[in-house]
Design a protein that fits this description.
This protein is of the alpha/beta class and 435 residues long. The protein is built from 13 helices and 19 strands. Bound molecules: S-adenosyl-L-homocysteine, iron/sulfur cluster (SF4) and FE3-S4 cluster.
Length: 435
C-alpha cells in the first residue's frame, strides 16, 4: 500500500500530543510519515481556536491546500482539533474540498475513515474516550507528553476550550501508570502530565483519587527521572499538591499558574474563581514549600471592562510576583463565550499598548532573574542538539529554563551537572562540571 500522511499542528501542547496520537493511528493502519505536504496522500490540519489569529492561520493554510489538491485530486484533507469541533459540518459548506472532520475527543474514530469506511465526520460525544488506549507516535525519545484529563468544566468567560474539548474526563490511574511504565522501559526520562486543569484530576472517577495521589503513584516508576505537569488552575491548587511537590523529588520545581489579570474586578468578570490576594497566598505557600520554584503565568490584556486602573493592578502583580516567564495575549473575541456580551470592550490600540507594556516589563524581570543564575550549579536533562547552533547541545533545568552547552553526543538523554556561565533573555549557556 505504502500510503503517506502529513500532519500540521496548531495550538497548545494538548494539540501537539493529539497529533502524536493521530500519527499513532496512521502508523497502526500501515501509513508512513510523508516528508511534507507534496508527498502526502492524506494531510491532517490539527487546528486551534483559542484566539482569532490561530483561526486565521488555519484558513490560510487551508487555502494553500486547496491549490495542492487541484494538482493532486487524490489527496485527502482531514481537519482535526478545536476548530473542527467548534465549526463542525459547517466547514464542509465553506470548504467542500475537506474530506473528513474529527474532534479532539474522537481521535480513535480516525481509523474508521482511514480504512475506507464511508464516514465524513466524527464530532459526537464519545463518553468512553478516556478509557480508550490510543497509541502515540512520539516526537522525541527523552521527554514525553501523557494525557491525564481531557476537557474543561471552568467556562472562563473568554475561553473556547470548554466548547471544543467538552466536559472533564479523567483517565484511569492504571492506564496512565501503564503508559508511563512503558515509556520508562523505552528509555524516556521525563514526562509531562497534560490537562487543561490537572487539579481537577479524579473528580469523575469511580475510585477516590486526586492529582497529588496520582503524582505519588507515578513517582514510583523506575527510570522516569523528572515529572512535570500543565496546567494548574489557581483556584484548585491545593495545599496537598504543594506538599506533594515538596516531598516528591522527581516532581520538578516549576509551576505554570495562569493569573490572567491582577484586578479582582476583572478576575470576577472572567469567572476565574479567585481574588488576587488568594492567588498571592498560594504563590507564597509554593515558594515557602518548594525551594527556588520557578513560576510562570498567562496574562490577557484588554479583557472587556478593563480600565487603566485594572491594568495597573496587573502591572503591579507582575512586579510583585516576579515570574520566571509569562505568555501574554491581547483579549480576542471568541464564538459562544460569555465575554462577548460584556459591556465596554477595549479598543484594539489600547489592548496592544497594554500588551507591549506587560511584555517589556517582564523582559526586565526575566533578564534580572536569569542573571542571578550566573555561576550556579544546576542539573539539566540533555535533549539533543540546539536548533539554533548545531555545535551545541541543549537541555532544560528542573525549573524549565533552556541551557545550551558544548558536549558530546553521549550526553543526550542524560542528566548532567553544569555551571551557568552566561545568562541571556531566552536562554542560558553553561559548561559541564566533572563529578
Ligand atoms: N487551561 C489553561 C489555559 C488554556 S488556554 C488554563 O486555564 O490556564 C491558554 C491561555 O490562552 C489562557 O491561559 C489565556 O491566557 C489565553 N486565552 C484563552 N482564551 C483567550 C482569548 N479569548 N483571548 C486571549 N487570550 C486567551
Ligand atoms: Fe479555558 Fe479557563 Fe478551562 Fe483554562 S480553565 S481551558 S482558560 S475555560
Ligand atoms: Fe489548545 Fe487551541 Fe484547543 S490552545 S485546547 S488547541 S483551542
Amino acid at each position: 500500500m505504502n500510503k503517506k500522511y502529513h500532519i500540521h499542528t496548531f495550538g497548545c501542547q494538548m494539540n501537539v500530543h493529539d497529533s502524536e496520537k493521530i500519527a499513532g493511528v496512521f502508523s497502526e493502519t500501515g501509513y508512513q510519515e510523508a516528508s511534507g505536504f507534496n508527498e502526502a496522500d492524506v494531510i491532517v490540519l490539527n487546528t486551534c481556536s483559542i484566539r482569532e489569529k490561530a483561526e486565521q492561520k488555519f484558513y490560510s493554510e487551508l487555502g494553500r491546500l486547496k491549490k495542492i489538491k487541484k494538482n493532486n485530486p487524490n489527496l485527502k484533507i482531514a481537519v482535526a482539533g478545536c476548530i473542527a469541533q467548534q465549526k463542525g459540518g459547517k466547514l464542509f459548506e465553506r470548504f467542500p474540498y475537506i474530506d473528513f472532520i474529527f474532534g479532539p475527543n474522537n481521535i480513535d474514530k480516525l481509523q474508521i475513515w482511514v480504512t475506507g469506511n464511508t464516514v465524513n465526520s466524527a464530532l459526537e460525544d464519545n463518553p468512553d474516550y478516556s478509557i480508550k488506549l490510543i497509541p502515540a507516535k512520539r516526537e522525541g525519545r527523552i521527554r514525553a507528553w501523557v494525557s491525564i484529563i481531557y476537557g474543561c468544566n471552568n467556562f472562563c468567560a473568554y475561553c473556547v476550550v470548554p466548547f471544543t474539548r467538552g466536559r472533564e474526563m479523567s483517565r484511569r490511574v492504571s492506564d496512565i501508570y501503564n503508559e508511563i511504565q512503558s515509556l520508562a522501559e523505552q528509555g524516556f526520562k521525563e514526562i509531562t502530565l497534560l490537562g487543561q486543569n490537572v487539579n481537577s484530576y479524579g473528580k469523575n472517577l469511580k475510585i477516590t483519587v486526586d492529582f497529588p495521589d496520582l503524582l505519588k503513584e507515578i513517582h514510583k516508576i523506575e527510570g522516569i527521572e523528572r515529572i512535570r505537569f500543565v496546567t494548574s488552575h489557581p483556584r484548585d491548587l491545593s495545599d496537598k499538591l504543594i506538599e506533594a511537590m515538596r516531598d516528591l523529588p522527581k516532581v520538578c520545581e516549576h509551576i505554570h499558574l495562569p493569573i490572567q489579570s491582577g484586578s479582582d474586578m476583572i478576575l470576577n468578570l472572567m469567572n476565574r474563581g479567585y481574588t488576587y490576594k488568594e492567588y498571592r497566598i498560594k504563590i507564597n505557600n509554593l515558594r515557602n514549600a518548594v525551594h527556588d520554584i520557578a513560576i510562570t503565568t498567562d496574562i490577557i490584556t484588554g479583557f472587556p471592562g478593563e480600565t487603566e486602573e485594572d491594568f495597573q493592578h496587573t502591572v503591579a502583580a507582575l512586579s510583585e510576583i516576579e515570574y520566571d516567564g509569562i505568555f501574554a495575549f491581547k483579549y480576542s473575541k471568541r464564538p459562544d463565550t460569555k465575554a462577548l456580551d460584556l459591556p465596554n470592550h477595549v479598543e484594539d490600540k489600547v489592548k496592544s499598548e497594554r500588551l507591549k507594556k506587560i511584555l517589556d516589563l517582564q523582559e526586565t524581570i526575566t533578564y534580572k532573574k536569569n542573571i542571578r543564575l550566573k555561576s550556579e550549579l544546576v542539573e539539566i536533562l540533555v535533549e539533543g542538539y540546539s536548533e539554533t547552533d548545531a555545535n551545541k547541545l541543549t537541555g532544560r533545568t528542573r525549573t524549565n529554563k533552556i541551557v545550551n552547552l558544548y558536549g558530546e553526543k553521549e550526553d543526550i538523554g542524560k542528566l548532567i551537572k553544569i555551571k551557568i556561565l552566561e545568562a541571556k533573555l531566552h536562554s542560558l549557556f553553561g559548561e559541564k562540571v566533572l563529578t
